[in-house]
Amino acid sequence: MRTWRLAVLACLCAAAAAAPAEAKTHHHTWNITYQYKSPDCFRKLAVTINGESPGPTIRAAQGDTLVVTVHNMLDTENTAIHWHGIRQIGSPWADGTAGVTQCPILPGETFTYRFVVDRPGTYMYHAHYGMQRVAGLDGMLVVSVPDGVAEPFAYDGEHTVLLMDWWHQSVYEQAVGLASVPMVFVGEPQSLLINGRGVFNCSPPAASNGGGAACNAFGGECGWPTLFTASPGKTYRLRIGSLTSLASLSFEIEGHTMTVVEADGYYVTPVVVKNLFIYSGETYSVLVTADQDPSRSYWAASHVVSRDPTKTAPGRAVVRYASAAVDHPRTPPPTGPRWNDTASRVAQSRSFAALPGHVEPPPARPDRVLLLLNTQSKIDNHTKWAINGVSLSFPATPYLVAMKHGLRGEFDQRPPPDSYDHGSLNLSSPPASLAVRHAAYRLALGSVVDVVLQNTAIPPPNGRSETHPWHLHGHDFWVLGYGEGKFVPEVDGPGLNAASARGGAVMKNTVALHPMGWTAVRFRASNPGVWLFHCHLEAHVYMGMGVVFEEGVDVLPRLPASIMGCGRTKGHHY
């Protein structure tokens, strides 16, 4: 074990030394404030960065350092910002997950994130405190290849596409509802936004929530944004990210196909699609060629899938040809695929494979297998999500600090279960949850871990099974497979190693767990720190749908004092 730890530290030092000589440092200063915004024509408070929601797109090159100074100017609310998809190798305290890697940034206080972007690709950032992401604190983060490095595809220009869902209810109302007895769910979003803009139907009297002027269809902030202006025959790279808080989406461009070439920062074998299914926390790059009638404009559209879409206005944007006679299309917008066609979504998930020549082969077999069962039930009359019977909660002292400094009383020392009784499992009537706990899985540094996520149905009267996009902080994983129904270790387990041996497994940081099915991933626990692995739907992680992994905290250097100041660290120096 000591040999492995020394090897990890050597690799971290080598990675830092291998950064391009011309690597740059980019400084950003952000003021986080509440502002009245009308992104879909309905006026409400949004959490903004320098007055804007979404925030600015950050651009850097592989090996560059980002320094982001965050001033929390929210008078009554904490904050923290997670750099989604950035592995934070050597800087786990900069992951930006309140309760896991840092204390939250208090009102009136300032915190500086400093980290290296070690891989090129399409990434994002967003609030990671409570359910704050729902209020609009998010944006895109694009890491380009270094100068002189060619990518395995060509294009003439690139644009970012950030997909969001949007509620007229405040974050506080949503959070209080979820914590109430009986639970009041957040409901379906009112709108879908593309690059922060959309259109909600202001006609019904209820649209104003009794406020009269709350909904203004002619407001300057809402409308159908222009996605990009195309020149005939040119090919464009769209870097698409989803930061929805509940909705799974289908994205398409009227009359055009899209060729998927990147997923979560990794090149994939090109896949041509009419519509891209994208789940919260995922990013893709697609190539679109302007090969249609150049005298007109075309709709881009996002639609809810895997949930009833009738209460949510679709998202729309415009792809305008430079020679088009009018700015907006005269055709009806795309209607989208059938929202409950699970088979098509699973088929697209399975279609992605690592691009030959850019394959990082997975380890041949795991050292440890975690079978994780998600269930929803009541704990002390509160409706909770749980994994293997344990509903996750975040302690007052962040896990990283408590584990590094041996503050054993700050979290439950009993590890969560590695498995569940899969033999007797009935997916339509899963076992009840057991407890809400501050708990973590301790992983041997350098070990190979398989995680099999098993979906079930929500108890009656709902009774349906939902899509859960799972995101792993601090790592990328190999996607080994998707299955329908119940995962049977004796039957399905050997197939995971066979899939690994075949090669070509795509690497990602976020993966969909489809309704009434299972998803298997493999990763190497080689990044010292404490990392969250959770459903990326805000309501679900708020209700406990996640786990915490610890690996190698003892080899970390002294933790920065700036991440402390809450729980047991208040008034203490470590």
TrEMBL record:
Secreted keyword on record: yes
Gene3D superfamilies, per the entry: Cupredoxins - blue copper proteins
Catalytic reaction(s) noted: 4 L-ascorbate + O2 = 4 monodehydro-L-ascorbate radical + 2 H2O
Signal peptide as annotated in the record: 1-23
EC class of the enzyme, as a word: oxidoreductase
Location relative to the cell: Secreted
Domain of life from the UniProt record: Eukaryota
GO cellular component: extracellular region
Cofactor: Cu cation
EC number per UniProt: 1.10.3.3
NCBIfam families in UniProt: ascorbase
Name this protein carries in UniProt: L-ascorbate oxidase
